[in-house]
Amino acid sequence: IQLTQSPSLLSASVGDRVTLSCKGSQNINNYLAWYQQKLGEAPKLLIYKTNSLQTGIPSRFSGSGSGADYTLTISSLHSEDLATYYCYQYYNGLSFGSGTKLEIK
Amino acid sequence: EVQLVESGGGLVQPGRSLKLSCAASGFAFSDYAMAWVRQAPKKGLEWVATIVYDGGSTYYRDSVKGRFTISRDHAKSTLYLQMDSLRSEDTATYYCARHSGATRVFDYWGRGVMVTVSS
User: Fold this and answer.
1) Between B104, B105, B112, which is nearest A45 by CB?
2) Residues on chain B bordering chain A, Cβ-to-Cβ distance under 8 angstroms
3) Contact B45/A44, CB-based, under 8 Å?
4) pLDDT per position as a tens digit, B6-38
5) Secondary structure of chain B in the HEC alphabet?
């Protein structure tokens, strides 16, 4: 399954509500996770099974979606959210999206 | 605290071999499936291989099948990736990752080790 993330680059201000998109080439049946990767660091799991928040992740992060279309929302952007975000499907094989780089204005 | 520490990376010529190791601690290593995920310079993430908790089954992406072998040693709590017939397109940072429980999500990652394939 191919995952297409949009936009590839997003610039937003602290306090903004931010929405990142991930579209599969077919139905993913909610087996969709989101990872955050800061520069020079390993990825960190944020969300799994579409909308389940990983332990220790701030509640400003949330996920939604169904079928082939999924969204990661940051309700109020913090400066430390500067990172690249990857979606990941584990319904049919294992594959990552190409990433959305989030910049802080 | 869960810790995954990779080692064994470096510069290698095309066609040669390299073996990566990942030392695990802070959890019951033999209870979890483990994986290798790689990231080419300035590129995205790419799953490479998975081994189930008891080593009974292994899975690979098509581009490394027949060249890479994932294995584990429970006595040493260590995961391995034997990489043979290396190609320039295998150049990447290789991360060791733990599969979360019964799912195929990766919940813990190591800091990664760089592998450069070049003459």
Assistant:
1) B105
2) 44-47, 50, 95, 100, 103-107, 109-112
3) no
4) 999 999 999 999 999 999 999 999 999 999 999
5) CCEEEEECCEEECCCCCEEEEEEEECCCHHHCCEEEEEECCCCCEEEEEEECCCCCCEEECHHHCCCEEEEEECCCCEEEEEECCCCHHHCEEEEEEEECCCCCCEEEECCCEEEEECC
